[in-house]
Amino acid sequence: MIEVKRPKEGFLSVFAYRMAPKEELFTRGHRACQGCAAALGLRLAMKAAGRNTIVVNATGCMEIVSSPYPYTSWAVPWIHVAFENAAAVASGIESAIKVLKRKGRLDPSKKINVLVFAGDGGTADIGLQALSGMMARGHNVTYVCYDNEAYMNTGVQGSSATPYGAHTTTTPAGKVKFGQGYWKKNLPEIAVAHGIPYVATACPSYPLDLIRKVKRSFELEGPAYIHMFAVCPTGWGIPPAYAIKAGRLAAETGVFPLYEVEHGRYRLTLDFEKGLKPVEEYLKFQRRFRHLTPEMIKLIQERVSAEYTRLKIMEETTNRPDYRSIAGI
Amino acid sequence: MAKRRGIEVSIAIAEAAALAEVDVVSAYPITPQTHIVEHLAELVANGELNAEFITVESEHTAMSAALGASLAGARAFTSTSSQGLALMNEIVYIASSMRAPVVMALANRSLSAPISIWNDHSDVMNERDTGWISIFANNGQEAYDLTFMAFKIGEHPDVLLPVMINFDGFILTHVVEPIYMFDKEEVEGFLPPYHHPYVLDPERPVTHGPVGLPDIYTEAKKQQEEAIRNSRKVIDAVWKEFDERFGRRYNAVETYKADDAEVVLVTQGSVTEAAQVVVDEMRKQGRKWGVVEIRLWRPFPFEDLKKALCNGSIKCAVVLDRAISFGGPLGIVMSEVRAALYNLSDRPMVVGVTAGLGGRDIRFDEYVRMFELGEECLKEEKEPDRVIIVGLRE
Amino acid sequence: MKMKEKPKWYELLPGAVIDEPGNSVFYKTGDWKTLKPVVDKTKCIKCGTCWIFCPEYAYEKDEYGYFNPNYDYCKGCGICAVECPARCIKMEREED
Amino acid sequence: MVEIRFHGRGGQGAVTSAEILALAVIEEGRYAQAFPAFGAERRGAPVLAFTRISDEPIKIRIGIYEPDIVIVLDPTLLRSVPVFSGLKENGIAVINSKKSPEELKAELNYDGNLVTVDATSIAMEELGVPITNVVMLGALLKAKPELAKMEYVEKFIAERFPKIAEKEVRAFRRAYEEARS
Predict the structure, then answer these.
(1) Which of B132, B280, B159 lies closest to B227, judged by CA?
(2) What is the pLDDT of residue B288?
(3) pTM metric for this prediction
(4) N or C: which end of chain C has fewer CB within 10 A?
């Protein structure tokens, strides 16, 4: 058995106040829904990123709620251009920083982080090409996809990150169709396939873990992709008060495993020695899943278990000394 | 001193961008623009140009990255054609709205379908209302000069708008011809260092591209409209300064033997000089013809055009369109010329023709036909509603 | 806040840039709520869980180390009440 | 104005020779234009390139339909391409062929000015490859010496082919010597 070192802070938010940066760079007065986990995720990510950060925001919930003129919730330089091109705009900004430093027009010793926030639609669907280009070219950018599993900004339409079986307004549960008809696109693995230095999943229900991962992404040179689970009470049909709980359940059931891949080496940052809870616990209190039949739940359970096992195997394999020595980790 | 060199026009355009010491080039290959960006990539690869060359995965990203770089404080350049421009369209509009002074060299090419890599003006006309300053070059020298000056115009603090320089694909891009090229010392001080008053700087955070609720959108658009209208002063000043320093004069509307002409052909781009040759030849036969070129397409030079066309001599202006507005007036430039003169009592007749679509050569006799069409309309005292296609097999 | 909600067109910065970082703090979202969190300080362990999980960071730490909701921003989502490990936060109805 | 049309096959360098000629003319302070015909062809297909030469700035930018000179880089093109199309009455055809002008005239049923040179053999002997674009420029200058100055043409040949400049220039000179009219 290979010993994997896991960070300890993962689940103890009780220590959060002492351990989290106090500075708020995503300021209040934003117009996100009550209990919006994406807004919380941005707030936490900004704590990690710090003041010397340029944020590029794709069109989407977070862009809309944080910048209705003349108000801005951004205490850092921020730019929104369009829906599908946040990674492209970030590529341009990062290139500009690089050349301006080389030409001495920016202080070369000053580290400026470039951080992208985009939703799942802007990442898994319309923005995938731009993201792929950014990762392939190796821009030193951290791309955070806040995944609320549908086009929430336009009123809960299905995206390719919408989970199997979920009801959305374009994948409605009707008499002959039962919600989203295909499996959620695995974006973190697409990012891993680009061979970039850092890929992670995160969830605001685990704030210290999220903060640590965003920080880590900036320590490593090159592109980083962080897939952030963002519970959407409005779109999922759950009480706003349960936003954090729902995220925790997603992790505990294995529906959204928390892991990171650093230079190809996998690590489950939150592992459950006693095993995962059944997915039904996660599914049952969400309105978007309430039409699911036992057969569909079984199908989902099998898929989740298989994916979790695969991750464990990846962790095991990529931590083997022979792999690590060849991969130069 | 500027050296006269035989050079492919594409290479010269790339050299103009290099002369401006662009910081970021982001571009995607498309015929017939490719030689421009290939040459810039080569200059960067050889260390002759200290810039970041971003090999983007689409034109959409090319413009997005250029916009990002521009607002991050870098002088940004891109180049495209046809479908590439059509794909960028969304960000082309946003770039001017966000006041990013990107410079784009546009090798004019037709739009699909059927797919055609050859020259006409469908691509630029499709972007007519995107809020860019848009200027036409007729030959390699002009393409070189105008590209270099575009940075000075767009980046001027009173302007802060992107500029596109149009030159005909293949017809100009792939031609080797003599061009006077500047050396660095010679243009010293002409182009100030890049400066944008609201860059993405952690020392002074700004929010770019906020949500424009109905309360604000109209005002934002009005402000943008004023900006491009006011850019005219800067454009004229930059062209004047260039003339004073380097001895080549550019005007928003260029006229050729129009003073005593009865019929003029109104042109844009490389057909202008061909039309001049036709005028020279036919004047030998006593035909009083001339050429009026709309070099500055946006902001539209209303006053200059009125002055050029309502000179007391011109009775008919035949406008040569190189693109089609389907189901509309057909001729885009024709409509604009007609609209510009609409309320003038002494205006000439405006006749629209189109030719040279999708790379079809316009031959000498076809130019003659265009002028003659104008003469026929004068004789019949009838201004046709729609554009006549010249050189069509019927 | 010096920026205007309804500026004239010539009062806008180029591209409608906002040059007042984080000025949404002047936009109070406190009137969104129907329920408001009330902290029972006798049970509070001052851990800050409410603070870390609040999407609005409505909780502010006072001089005694307690975290108090700022009702100007609190939207009344109730996350704090659910997450509080000491169970010291109750959601109560806003007064009429 | 002199208008010249180059006939070659994609990859044989017709465009390069059209450009070298234009560059040599421009170097003298005169005016020239060189450009390819912009087709959809790829390597191997018959292609065209053009050069215009003038003492005045050149304003015409369409293809050349009535050339003063045609140059045929590859003898096999004679079979498939109407190379004489539009050639002016007093125009010149410069053709890569082993045959003498008389033989070729009879064969092609053409009685205008004709210059031939065995460019393929020269290219094989001097360069080791049957690339005849530069070689044919030698024959062209023999046919019409006032087009451009030999030394400038050689200068741009050397610039374009820095690694085999000497060989290319030698081949060019041989063609100039060996061309028959």
Answers:
(1) B159
(2) 98
(3) 0.96
(4) C
Q: What does the pLDDT look like over B9-34, one tens digit per residue? A: 999 999 999 999 999 999 999 999 99
Whether residue B207 lies within 8 A of chain A, CB to CB, comes out as: yes
Q: Do B226 and C7 lie within an 8 Å CB cutoff?
A: no
How far apart are the CA of D7 and the nearest CA of chain B, in angstroms? 17
Q: Which of C10, C12, C19 is opposite residue B206, by nearest beta carbon?
A: C19
Domain spanning C29-93, CATH class: alpha beta
Given B198, B222, B246, the domain boundary residue is: B246
Tokens for D52, please give them.
């215009």
Matching CATH number, A8-327, of 3.40.50.300, 3.90.79.10, 3.40.50.970, 3.40.50.720:
3.40.50.970
Tokens standing for residue A76: 């850092």
pLDDT tens digit sequence for C51-80:
999 999 999 999 999 999 999 999 999 999
CB-nearest to C8 from B100, B209, B219 is B219
Residues B202, A136: C-beta atoms closer than 8 Å: no
- Integer Cα distance of B169 and B36 in angstroms: 11
C17 touches chain B (CB under 8 A): yes
| Cβ-based contacts under 8 A for chains B and D | 64
From the number of C-beta atoms within 10 Å of its C-beta (0-12, 13-18, 19+), residue D155 rates as middle
pLDDT digits (tens, 9 = 90+) for A307-317: 999 999 999 99
Each residue of B274-304: pLDDT tens digit?
Answer: 999 999 999 999 999 999 999 999 999 999 9
* pLDDT higher than 60, residue A9: no
Nearest CA-CA distance, residue D55 and chain B, Å: 12
Neighbour tally for B93: CB within 10 Å: 17
Instruction: Specify whether the CB–CB gap between C4 and B215 falls below 8 A.
Output: no
Domain CATH code at residue B290: 3.40.50.920
Is the bond leading into B114 cis (omega within 30 degrees of zero)?
Answer: yes
Check whether residue B218 and residue B71 sit in a common domain.
yes
At residue B386 the predicted structure's pLDDT band, cuts being 50, 70 and 90, is: confident
Mean pLDDT of chain A: 95
The domain containing residue B37 runs over which residues? 3-246
- Contact assignment for D26 to B361 by CB distance below 8 Å: no
Residue B369 lies in a domain: yes
- Cα–Cα nearest to A123, from A30, A56, A41: A56
| Interatomic CA distance for residues B291 and B113, integer angstroms | 32
**DSSP assignment letter at A32:** P
Distance CA B250, CA D29 (A): 24
Q: What are the residues whose beta carbons fall under 8 Å from the beta carbon of D17, sequence distance 6 or more?
A: D6, D49, D71, D73, D133, D134, D136, D137
Alpha-carbon distance of B124 to B121, in angstroms, equals 6
B213: domain CATH number? 3.40.50.970
CB atoms D33 and B176 under 8 Å: yes
Tell whether A112 is within 8 A of chain B (Cβ).
Answer: yes
* Each residue's pLDDT tens digit, D54-111: 999 999 999 999 999 999 999 999 988 999 999 999 999 999 999 999 999 999 999 9
Task: Please tell me the predicted confidence (pLDDT) of residue B23.
Answer: 98
3-state helix, strand, coil in chain B (%, to 5): 40, 20, 40
Helix, strand or coil, per DSSP, at residue B328? coil
What is the SS3 assignment for D49?
A: strand
Residues above pLDDT 90, as percent of chain D: 88
**The pLDDT of residue C96:** 66
Domain end, chosen from B246, B280, B298, is at: B246
Please name every residue paired with B135 in a beta bridge, in sequence order, or none if there are none: B165, B296
Contact B212 C16 (CB under 8 A): yes
Give the count of alpha carbons within 13 A of D3, CB side only. Answer: 15
Distance in Å, alpha carbon of B101 to nearest chain A alpha carbon: 14
- Which residues partner with B377 through β-bridges? none
